[in-house]
Design a protein that fits this description.
Structural class of chain A: alpha+beta
Order of helices and strands of chain A: EEHEEEHHHH
Largest sheet of chain A: 5 strands, mixed
Number of helices of chain A: 5
Helix content of chain A: 25-40%
Strand order of the largest sheet of chain A: 2-1-5-3-4
Number of strands of chain A: 5
Oligomer: heterodimer
Distance between the termini of chain B: 50 Å
Strand content of chain A: 5-15%
Helix content of chain B: 25-40%
Largest interface: A-B, 39 and 35 residues
Order of helices and strands of chain B: EHEHEEEHHHHHHHEEEEEEEHHH
Number of strands of chain B: 12
Strand order of the largest sheet of chain B: 4-5-8-6-7
Radius of gyration of chain A: 17 Å
Radius of gyration of chain B: 20 Å
Distance between the termini of chain A: 54 Å
Largest sheet of chain B: 5 strands, antiparallel
Number of helices of chain B: 12
Chain lengths: ~170, ~325
């Protein structure tokens, strides 16, 4: 029982992987150590920094606070899966254009988070700083609030916000 | 993290059976945002994890009389943006959006939010004494660094606070928690779901072994009230409350007809401010009346070495929120 390995199947970036893992392995460690998808980063490993952000069925989550086994057969997307046919995702392009990073360690999490954030935005999701009854405006306040789950210790926030705005404009075209 | 047996439940009866079978301690695993972290720190050491993440308890349903039923597995982000919640129970939507981060709200569930454990640093640090983590070992928060700790309802055993924002709104909205378990189903008023620490701070809810939250009901009498949630914290986003206030009122003919007030960050459970409510129902809404009500509620408050600021902070936040709801000029005192 307890010490047995589990046989699971993970769907990552539209590929299926069959793994034999200890049930204690987090989704983050499964991605990095078992699937060699090291783009997703381990920062705090306790849900505070967002470096481990990945998308599950299009929604952003912290992969460090989940067991891989919980997400069996769900559609997981990591930073490695954003580019299509060798062409960067508009959000990746925008981060480069606007210097949305310095050391780059938080960047995969920032980009995955931002991609999902814009999907939430387009679906009309409100945030804690949205004024009741007022139309949604992609203001600095809204971006700060909606991206507060991703920390950047280099402090590249100005570039990050500019990149997200630019990508939003590009993707809305 | 200790080794455990992983069981994925497909319906809630089999989940209850799996958690009740011998070889416990077992824990239900929902979003995992708190439990996985606590297991990694060695604070929680279940021998069996019953994964309830795929149980079909994911609906928000309208009920007769204008109330709603929220499935235990409805995730926080979905609940906050659900049209019924946004339109009829905005206090709940606001409270949820003030908690955690977007990533965590996508993972965390309704039932799991009720079951989350304190963020007391001593509870998390297995090198220290904590009666909640290890009954009878003592409390290093008392006499330690206790800026974030309780001012109401604490005991000589424990001064931890409940960390939820969502639960403060549920307390104010007169929620009912629906539970199923080895001996059958029952419904518990929200105020009786969580416990004060007393001599058993390790027992945080009135759930019995193997019992599972299946849904949370909000009554029609709580729908459509004028409401506000205000959270005071150390940074503007993604931080736990030092003090939070959830309030909902109905004012007619110049008098308060209905008043719901609950506080977060101040006690071992979401604190329904029944004393303040009693003094305000039937009263003319004025800043003075709100201040007197806040004083009455906070009269039994006891400060620790580092959290005395919470008493005036709670008082001022109550007055500010109620003044705003009553349409009284909400300038600072």
């Amino acid at each position: 029982m307890s010490d047995e390995l589990a046989h699971i199947s993970l769907r990552v970036n539209a590929s299926t992987y069959n793994l034999t893992i200890d049930p204690r392995v987090s989704l983050l460690d499964a991605l990095r150590d078992h699937l060699s998808l090291a783009g997703t980063k381990k920062g705090c490993n306790q849900g505070a920094c967002g470096a481990c952000t990945v998308l599950v069925d299009g929604e952003r989550i912290n992969s460090c606070l989940t067991l891989a086994i919980q997400y069996e057969d769900r559609e997981i997307q990591t930073i490695e899966g954003l580019a299509q046919d060798g062409v960067l995702h508009p959000m990746q392009d925008a981060f480069i254009t606007h210097d949305g990073f310095q050391c780059g360690y938080c960047t995969p999490g920032q980009i995955c988070s931002a991609v999902a954030m814009l999907a939430e935005w387009k679906a009309g999701a409100r945030s804690a700083v949205t004024k009741p009854g007022s139309p949604l405006q992609l203001s600095d306040d809204e971006l700060r609030e909606r991206m507060s789950g991703n920390l950047c210790r280099c402090g590249a926030y100005v570039g990050i916000r500019a990149a997200i705005r630019d990508a939003f404009a590009e993707m809305s075209r | 993290m200790n080794a455990f047996e992983y069981v994925r439940a497909t319906d809630h009866r089999s989940a209850i059976d799996a958690a009740t079978r011998p070889a416990a301690p077992a824990r239900f695993l929902a979003g995992g945002t708190n439990l996985i972290d606590l297991m990694r720190e060695g604070v929680e050491q279940p021998r069996r994890l019953v994964d309830i993440g795929r149980l079909p308890l994911t609906a928000v349903e309208e009920r007769s009389g204008g109330g709603i039923r929220i499935g235990a597995m409805v995730r926080n982000s979905h609940l906050a943006s659900h049209p019924l919640v946004r339109e009829q129970f905005r206090l709940l939507s606001e409270a949820i959006l003030n908690g955690a981060s977007a990533q965590l709200r996508n993972m965390a569930t309704t039932g799991g939010n009720l079951m989350q454990r304190t963020r007391c640093y001593y509870f998390y640090d297995t090198a220290t004494h904590c009666n909640k983590r290890e009954p009878g070992s003592g409390c290093d928060a008392i006499g330690g660094f206790n800026r974030i700790h309780a001012i109401l309802g604490a005991s000589s055993q424990c001064i931890a606070t409940h960390p939820s924002d969502m639960c403060v709104a549920l307390a104010a909205l007169d929620a009912t928690v629906n539970i199923d378990g080895p001996t059958g189903a029952r419904a518990v008023p929200f105020a009786e779901f969580h416990r004060l620490p007393g001599d058993t701070p390790d027992v945080e809810t009135n759930l019995a072994r193997g019992e599972l939250i299946t849904s949370v009901d909000l009554p029609g009498s709580s729908a459509g009230l004028r409401s506000a949630y205000r959270k005071v914290r150390d940074r503007a986003s993604y931080a736990f409350a030092l003090v939070s206030v959830a309030a909902a009122v109905r004012i007619a003919d110049g008098r308060i007809r209905d008043m719901r007030l609950a506080l977060g960050g101040v006690a071992h459970k979401p604190w329904r401010a029944v004393v303040a409510e009693r003094t305000l129902v039937g009263a003319v809404p004025t800043r003075d009346a709100f201040a007197r009500a806040a004083d009455a509620e906070l009269e039994p408050a006891v400060a620790q070495a580092h959290n005395a600021f919470k008493i005036p902070l709670a008082r001022r936040t109550i007055v500010a929120v109620l003044s705003e709801l009553a349409g009284i000029d909400g300038g600072a005192e």
